[in-house]
Design brief:
The radius of gyration is 16 Å and the shape is globular. It contains one helix and 25 strands. With 263 residues, it is an all-beta fold. Strand 23 and strand 24 form a beta hairpin.
Length: 263
């Protein structure tokens, strides 16, 4: 499962093993829109900065750009030769970056769908995301580290160590001062970008943490796991606020059900 907040924090988008992309109401858990078009597992999703579009990457080797309001497929980006593991919009919404198991990183024009740049990844890893100012890129690595790179010079800014297994998800906070990462070690880590210090370790999942994101105000973190749950955390103390479950497990086809709310 892959998850991400909309810029206004009112919606959550998720990608699933059932090949679908779903948009949910973050407050009620209601299913707002189901986007269908991929032919394999959807391993990464993200909203555009204005919240009007969604990008998704799949094991079918494609990247899809969707209209978040209508659910229409706007662009299908093809060029990778293996599973697309991570996708993200640039801060201005004009470009999309994708990372694949073929060990390449591609940058696409979000309007035309044209391939702008392709290069071999510095390290093989699952997640890739721009910083809010577009100057840095974070990549989680299969060597258990999180690396922050300068997007223009390709200079390694920080190497964050603390996970004990593959790092399979990572994202910047909206102010660019923190990074959150998820790992096969079942933990969620929050890091200080400037110092590289590990700020908080969030534990509660019982499977690999496949996707993580900060809320727009930076006060909460959402994480999606192989254990088929979505956790919403208070980022400062690290407390678990809500635990959500996929509808197939809750016996419902139209809600992202809230299993537990921690008062």
């Amino acid at each position: 499962m892959s998850v991400a907040y909309s810029p206004d924090g009112k919606q959550v988008v998720s990608g699933s093993h059932d090949q679908s992309v779903c948009i949910w109401d973050a407050l009620t858990g209601d299913l707002v829109k189901e986007l269908k078009g991929h032919t394999s597992v959807v391993g990464s999703v993200a909203f555009s900065p204005d919240g009007k579009q969604v990008v998704s990457g799949s094991d079918d080797q494609s990247v899809h750009i969707w209209d978040a309001l209508t659910g229409d497929l706007l662009k299908e980006l093809k060029g990778h030769t293996d599973s697309v593991e991570s996708v993200a919009f640039s801060p201005d919404g004009k470009q999309v970056v994708s990372e694949s198991s073929d060990k390449s990183v591609c940058i696409w024009d979000a309007l035309t769908g044209d391939l702008v740049m392709e290069q071999v990844a510095h390290t093989f890893g699952r997640p890739v995301a721009f910083s809010p100012d577009g100057k840095q890129v974070v990549i989680g690595s299969y060597d258990q580290t999180v690396r922050i790179w300068d997007a223009s010079t390709k200079y390694l800014v920080k190497e964050l160590t603390g996970h004990t297994d593959l790092v399979v998800s990572a994202a910047f906070s909206s102010d660019g001062k923190q990074v959150v990462s998820g790992s096969d070690d079942q933990s969620v880590c929050i890091w200080d970008v400037l110092t590289g210090d590990l700020v908080k370790v969030l534990k509660g999942h019982t499977g690999s943490v496949w996707s993580v994101a900060f809320s727009p105000d930076g006060k909460q973190v959402v994480s999606g796991s192989k254990d088929k749950s979505v956790h919403i955390w208070d980022a400062l103390p690290g407390d678990l606020v809500k635990e959500l479950i996929e509808p197939s497990l809750a016996g419902s086809n139209d809600k992202l059900s809230i299993l537990k709310t921690i008062e």
